[in-house]
């Protein structure tokens, strides 16, 4: 338990001695002052639980000391008991209350009354200290709670990211591709706007894995994915890994000509990576076949038609020799470059 400091103020040493002897008990530390000025000086250095203040003192009297204390932020809540030998007239008592006394004790002091009154204020002080401690603990708990909340939000963000992205390449995963594609389809249907889809397949990827091993195979996938992501510049475009070595790009508000342009840049940028591929019959480097298709949806729930068209274009690009782009409606117009 914290020591309760009690300030006793009296101009007469014998009164200070009396007060001090009455206050002598464990848990109480007495600080003495023999003038108002000295009392105010002590206020700066200590946090008092209680002040026993003589009213009649030469120079600054008890009322003045009390008023000055009440005007100060640090001391205005410290309880004051005036100790006075003055008449017990009401006016005197009121004056004391106006200057901030919370109680009166009259000389000669009755030990029993003195101890019981002082005891009440010491108890109050301990309650106040305990409350302050609880309040501090509560503040600390709040800080911890806020930190936990932040961690939780971060974890949730990470979980969300994990649930929608492909762990290896960081592109959208198949599930999120389906969700986005369905969303864009409905939007295009509502707005009667064109929607394009590009599907990409790495040529002879099984041979690549067989030649260089799966670790290199994964590195190759990451590089190709990065090239796709770098090719697609608009925020609305979505690049996904939809199978082992299969990728797809959703291009909202894009007609076939635009999709063909992106498809060709994709093919070009993958070739520019110049990843050696000894197992490929069509190139020294890793290449991709690309299928593009475009549609202005006329039915609300016919998403498969565009996917099938893009797949068919990809199939044609593969059949025609790979490392090329084909589109569904304009067969192999782009051709191999
Ligand atoms: Mg006096």
How would you explain this protein's 3D organization?
The protein is of the alpha/beta class. It has 2 domains: 4-133, Rossmann fold (3-Layer(aba) Sandwich), CATH 3.40.50.2300; 174-327, Alpha-Beta Plaits. The chain has helices at residues 13-23, 36-45, 62-70, 90-98, 111-164, 174-191, 205-212, 214-231, 256-272, 303-319; strands at 4-9, 28-33, 50-54, 80-84, 103-106, 195-202, 238-241, 246-252, 288-295, 325-327. Strands 2-1-3-4-5 form a 5-stranded parallel sheet, sandwiched between helices. Helix 2 packs parallel to helix 3, helix 7 (205-212) crosses helix 8 (214-231) and helix 8 crosses helix 9 (256-272). Residues 330-337 have low confidence and may be disordered.
């Amino acid at each position: 338990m914290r020591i309760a400091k009690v300030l006793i103020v009296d101009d007469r040493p014998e009164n200070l001695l009396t007060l001090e002897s009455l206050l002598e008990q464990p848990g109480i530390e007495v600080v003495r002052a023999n003038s108002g000025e000295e009392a105010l000086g002590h206020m700066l250095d200590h946090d008092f639980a209680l002040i026993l203040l003589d009213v009649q003192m030469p120079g600054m009297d008890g009322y003045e000391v009390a008023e000055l204390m009440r005007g100060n932020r640090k001391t205005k809540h410290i309880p004051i008991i005036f100790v006075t030998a003055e008449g017990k007239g009401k006016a005197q008592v009121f004056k004391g209350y106006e200057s901030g006394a919370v109680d009166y004790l009259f000389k000669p002091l009755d030990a029993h009354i003195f101890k019981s009154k002082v005891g009440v204020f010491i108890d109050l002080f301990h309650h106040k200290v305990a409350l302050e401690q609880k309040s501090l603990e509560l503040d600390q708990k709040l800080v911890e709670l806020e930190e936990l909340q932040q961690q939780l939000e971060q974890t949730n963000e990470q979980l969300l990211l994990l649930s929608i992205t492909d762990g290896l390449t960081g592109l959208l995963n198949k599930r999120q591709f389906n969700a986005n594609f369905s969303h864009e389809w409905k939007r295009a249907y509502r707005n009667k706007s064109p929607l394009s889809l590009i599907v990409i397949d790495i040529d002879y990827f099984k041979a690549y894995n067989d030649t260089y091993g799966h670790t290199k195979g994964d590195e190759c996938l990451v590089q190709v994915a990065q090239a796709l992501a770098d090719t697609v510049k608009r925020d609305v475009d979505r690049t996904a890994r939809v199978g082992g070595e299969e990728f797809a790009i959703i291009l909202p508000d894009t007609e076939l000509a635009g999709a063909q342009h992106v498809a060709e840049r994709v093919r070009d940028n993958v070739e520019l990576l110049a990843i050696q591929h000894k197992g490929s019959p069509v190139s020294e480097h890793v290449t991709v076949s690309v299928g593009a298709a475009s549609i202005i949806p006329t039915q609300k729930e016919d998403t498969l038609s565009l996917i099938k068209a893009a797949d068919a274009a990809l199939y044609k690009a593969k059949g025609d020799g790979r490392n090329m782009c084909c589109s569904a409606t304009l067969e192999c117009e782009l051709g191999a470059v």
